[in-house]
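Good day; I would like, with your permission, to put a structural problem before you. What I wish to show you is a protein chain and, alongside it, a tokenised description of its three-dimensional fold. I would ask you to consider whether the tokens describe a fold that such a sequence might reasonably adopt. You will find the record immediately after this paragraph:
***
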Amino acid sequence: MEYSKEFKAALSAFSSIEKDRLIFRLLKKDKLLSKKLYFELIDPETTDDKRNAMEEHVAERVLLASKYIGNSKYFLSVIRKISAEITEHVKITTDKFGDVSLNLLLINTILEYNGDLGRQRFDHVYKLYLYIINKVFKALILAKKLDEDYWLEIDESLRKTLSGIEENHYLLKLCINNGLDLKWIRSCDSIPENIEQTMKEIKSQGFLK
């Protein structure tokens, strides 16, 4: 929504007390904005601090959820909630590196339980695997946009992702069937420049859904 000069002028004309009341009223309705402003204005923790805390949180949450891998719907619902928490962290801190590293951590932590996943019926884990593949695609897209100074750290996570996929026969086949070339996961240098457009084209053909 674009605001006219007249509207901006009217807001500027508010007294300090009126502005304060308006701000607090808006913040009560928008918790994410409230957290973002708190972080930017007075939070003693840095982006790195919050990312480190999120890394521990992701590992702990997946560990707890791993007990319910046999209940595929519940397990995936927990994974989606963890993903939403990562998204919130990124929106609050504008942590572009964390957007890639934390999502790859989530994927890699799930794949640490390949042994348990491999004992499930394929139709029970199909949606989870498809979710992982979409996550990998999005991580590759975001990684390619990062400053190259971050690539070395991301490469280490990508190697773990590739190893985890290769150890999971059905996930590996599903990656191939959905157009995810494993060569792209070797390193950030291996990610095609047009990876975002490639994903769009694959989706337009009915895959990744």
